Amino acid sequence: MLSMKKRNLVASLFLFLFCAGYAYTAYQLPTRAIENSTQPSFFPWVIVVFLFVLTLSLLIQSLFYKNTDKVENKKTLGYQISAYASILSISYLIFLPILGFVLANIFLFVGLMILYKEKRLIFILTCSITIPLIIFLIFKKVFSISLPVGILGGLF
């Protein structure tokens, strides 16, 4: 069986190939002659950039960091946490149209941070509120894409 370091190295190489193929496919998308609008290839290129950055970080981790085979606490790797995270994610998808993007993500982030044993209440609340707000405003103001506003429709 391969060590985790070798698995990460192999995975990063496959992800680089996938990223290259995805970039080639995004490059082939047609352009539109509409002013002040994003092209059909814009979001695929955003995905390519993020995938490349994440793959590069996996490659760097597999090459330069040691002790990737050790598990700190085997009890945290149980099926129970995965089941709770899945329930939270499904609940998020169910309540997203009702609560809206911001409020649903706040509840999701709080739930996941508590599930993964984050103890700092100020940190939980700050991250859970600011991250969805920033993402919502970027999509609304920069990309001109409307995300579900839900019951907070009057605020946004």
Automatic annotation (TrEMBL):
<feature type="transmembrane region" description="Helical">
    <location>
        <begin position="121"/>
        <end position="139"/>
    </location>
</feature>
<protein>
    <recommendedName>
        <fullName>DUF1468 domain-containing protein</fullName>
    </recommendedName>
</protein>
<keyword id="KW-0472">Membrane</keyword>
<dbReference type="Pfam" id="PF07331">
    <property type="entry name" value="TctB"/>
</dbReference>
<keyword id="KW-1133">Transmembrane helix</keyword>
<keyword id="KW-0812">Transmembrane</keyword>
<dbReference type="InterPro" id="IPR009936">
    <property type="entry name" value="DUF1468"/>
</dbReference>
<feature type="domain" description="DUF1468">
    <location>
        <begin position="10"/>
        <end position="148"/>
    </location>
</feature>
<feature type="transmembrane region" description="Helical">
    <location>
        <begin position="86"/>
        <end position="115"/>
    </location>
</feature>
<feature type="transmembrane region" description="Helical">
    <location>
        <begin position="41"/>
        <end position="65"/>
    </location>
</feature>
